[in-house]
Design goal:
By secondary structure, this protein is mostly beta strands. The protein has one domain (4-77). 6% of the residues lie in helices and 38% in strands. It has one helix and six strands, in the order E-H-E-E-E-E-E. The strands form two sheets. The chain has a four-stranded antiparallel sheet. Strands 2-4 form a two-stranded antiparallel sheet. The radius of gyration is 13 Å and the shape is elongated.
């Protein structure tokens, strides 16, 4: 499943029902990208199965904002696909 969204939507709204981020998202400011596993409501805390969100960042005036993101199917327990 691949979903691309641009613009000013809040990440939680863009993810849609049933998906969430349980741990922090740590951006790489050198590349202006971030990546995080996604959890479904019934996932255990240590094994996310909702895929992975890849987030592109940009400067908007004096703030860092989300430019775009994609949700990709992940491997076992949220690991990046091979």
């Amino acid at each position: 499943m691949r979903k691309r969204i641009r613009g000013g939507m809040v990440l939680a709204l863009a993810l849609g029902a049933g998906l969430g981020v349980q741990k922090g998202v740590y951006p790489d400011y050198a590349t202006m990208k971030a990546e995080t596993p996604l959890w479904r409501a019934d996932d255990s805390g240590n094994c996310p199965n909702g895929g992975r969100a890849r987030i592109d960042l940009q400067w908007r005036a004096d703030r860092i904002a989300r430019r775009a993101f994609r949700i990709r199917k992940a491997g076992e327990c949220g690991d990046p696909p091979n």
